[in-house]
Amino acid sequence: MIVRCGACHTQFEVPGPGKFSCPACGSVNAVRAAGARPGPGQAAGAPPGYTSPPPPPRPEPPSPRVQCPECEFRFIVGDIAVATCPNCGAEVPTGRGGEE
User: What are the domain boundaries of the chain?
Assistant: First the structure.
């Protein structure tokens, strides 16, 4: 039976159901008998040894916060050099982006 490693996707042959180390990366792969119920992370109807792809990467964290020197209010800004404080209206240099 040919299976594909869940970590590196290398195909390798196994004699049947059981746990087998991938010859390329060493990851242990659980191979189930044909018709076995899929386990967590395995797609229904997928061939034995196949696991679902990993979840998408986490979104990037928001831009760093800047602090207003007048009122000490902290807020997030985009890629601009100077922002207006939403709390007191003071101009706050951000250290980011080009000139305004």
Answer: 1-36+46-52, 59-100
